[in-house]
Design brief:
Length: 160
């Protein structure tokens, strides 16, 4: 597991993404006879991955160089941790109000990815988002939808 966790920071996005997906699957398993949440709670790699993710999205200039633009694999790990029956306590300190607000401020309709939407859905389901943050995310999604429709209609008119 430590190898997968370390390779999330690998510079090849394909390797990092595959490791992130594998790690998220393993973290989601309930292993018989193992206290899974205790293992995850004491796992410093998971916390470091989520902290780097939060920092790279909220304050990109402070994120480590190896992590810039490689947030997608880490999002899968964060989403899995947020979906656990017992979410690690440190997750709330990582995704606090200022972090979530910073992430929202750094997003625009043109840089919204599927993984970011998955992260916000997991944050919403785990009740990490406040009403004004939910409203801001909703406005961002509407702007993204409008941009996609505009781009599609321009493509169709160019073909005609």
């Amino acid at each position: 597991m430590a190898v997968l966790e370390g390779l999330i920071f690998y510079s090849d996005l394909r390797v990092a993404m595959n490791c992130g997906l594998c790690l998220s699957m393993i973290l989601g398993w309930e292993l018989p006879g193992m206290q899974g949440t205790i293992v995850i709670t004491k796992n410093h790699w998971s916390r470091m991955i989520v902290e780097e993710l939060a920092m790279s999205l909220a304050v990109p200039c402070l994120a480590s160089k190896s992590f810039i633009n490689l947030h997608k694999p880490a999002i899968h790990v964060a989403v899995t941790l947020l979906k656990l029956p017992k979410v690690p306590e440190w997750m709330r300190s990582v995704f606090d109000d200022s972090c979530i607000s910073g992430i929202i401020q750094n997003l625009a309709a043109n840089n919204l990815s599927t993984e970011i939407v998955l992260l916000f859905r997991a944050l919403l389901n785990s009740e990490y988002l406040k009403a004004e943050q939910i409203c801001s995310v909703n406005q961002l999604l509407q702007a993204c939808r409008k941009q996609k429709y505009t781009d599609n209609s321009q493509d169709e008119s160019a073909k005609a």
